[in-house]
Automatic annotation (TrEMBL):
Organism whose genome encodes this protein: Acetobacter garciniae
Protein name listed in UniProt: Phage tail protein
Ranges of residues in domain Baseplate hub protein gp44/GpP-like C-terminal: 239-321
One Pfam family of this chain: GpP-like_1st
InterPro entries assigned to the protein according to its UniProt record, in alphabetical order: Baseplate-like_2-layer_sand, Baseplate_GpP, Gp44/GpP-like_2nd, Gp44/GpP-like_C, GpP-like_N
Domain Baseplate hub protein gp44-like N-terminal per the UniProt entry, residue ranges: 17-60
Domain Baseplate hub protein gp44/GpP-like second, first and last residues per copy: 71-148
Length: 341
């Protein structure tokens, strides 16, 4: 976010069928369509001209309406909100920019007892922080609005080598993957075993600082590669910590298998434009890929070499948001720790 488009032409100002000149200037509102499908609503961001002995090239860059939410500071009448929801926070922060925020699948309905905005944050940064609490994604829509949504379960046309896939590159990596991930308490542990009895002391340290229910393993990592992650303040029963370690394993697995490919059409086999946050059955026998992947990015390209869609896809686990403790729970955890100290 924001979505963007770049057009390159050899003519400065286009004309209508009636012969009227259309003036294009930075800051103009615009809408882009592919056939009858609207794909982007926003503003002309920049115009550049290039003149040479045998050429006169014009490049126009258009961005979606969310460019203002991405670059501009958030404005609020109050910088602390109580008894609200993530959707309401996103709607409030986008309202000054004329951007509508919607949700599907219950995304953004998480109740937030207390949420504070940092004075220098952009609207995008506020939404990103809030949606982490709700465990949902947010991204642009063709009409210029922003959508809060869970990781999609909607399937679109398949990506098949020899049919609609022209080129593909698939990576399998061990970068950032660990054999075991354990949540660890950020606290001082009072030990009762003698220091010289190292084995018992280690066992006691493990029992006091590493909750047994907050650990996970990655069966795809055969070497000993441990990772410790902190238990957040306010997570008294380690519920979030247990979710966090599972999320760490799943996300790292998903991010280790990116697929980049080029399709021969902007549309799938059902005639619909390729869209992010949709699932596609992917069959690339020469690369040994038979997976259902989530489309993360789509680039529509048309030039001298034809019409193509460049797609980046990964396993759905790569996009699951990180589980977090809600702010009020953190405050209550701090208060409880203070009372008990």
């Amino acid at each position: 976010m924001p979505w963007a488009a770049m057009f390159e032409t050899t003519k400065w100002q286009p004309t209508t069928t009636d012969g009227y000149t259309i003036s294009i200037n930075p800051g103009d509102s615009c809408r882009i369509q592919i056939g009858s499908d609207q794909v982007l609503t926003g503003y002309v961001q920049s115009i550049s001209e290039e003149v040479g002995p045998d050429e006169h090239i014009l490049r126009v860059v258009v961005t979606s309406k969310s460019i203002d939410a991405t670059e501009c500071s958030a404005e609020f009448s109050t910088y602390q909100m109580n008894n609200t929801t993530v959707l309401a926070i996103a709607q409030q922060v986008c309202k000054p920019f004329g951007i509508t925020v919607n949700s599907v699948g219950g995304a953004g309905s998480t109740p937030i007892q207390q949420f504070s905005v940092i004075l220098t944050e952009t609207a995008y940064e506020v939404i990103e922080r809030a949606t982490r609490l709700a465990g949902c994604l947010f991204y642009d829509q063709p009409d210029g609005s922003i959508l809060l949504a869970p990781v999609s379960t909607v399937s679109v046309g398949a990506l098949i080598q020899g049919q609609n896939v022209e080129r593909a590159r698939f990576m399998r990596s061990m970068n950032g993957r660990f054999s075991s991930i354990q949540a660890i308490l950020q606290t001082t542990a009072v030990l009762f075993e003698a220091p010289q009895d190292g084995n018992k002391q280690a066992q006691e340290m493990q029992a006091l600082t590493a909750p047994g229910q907050a650990s996970a393993s990655d069966p795809g990592v055969t070497r000993h590669r441990p990772l410790l992650v902190p238990v957040e303040t306010g997570d008294a029963d380690y519920k979030i910590a247990a979710q966090r370690v599972q999320w760490e394993v799943a996300r790292r697995y998903g991010r280790s298998m990116p697929l980049e490919l080029t399709c021969d059409s902007w549309r799938d086999s059902n005639g619909r434009l390729w869209q992010p946050n949709t699932l596609s059955a992917t069959y690339l026998p020469k690369l040994g890929v038979t997976l259902t992947l989530l489309i993360a990015e789509v680039e529509f390209v048309q030039g001298m070499d034809g019409t193509h869609a460049n797609i980046i896809a990964m396993p759905p686990e790569a996009f699951k948001p990180q589980p977090l403790v809600l702010p009020m729970a953190q405050n209550e955890g701090v208060a409880a720790a203070t009372r008990n100290s």
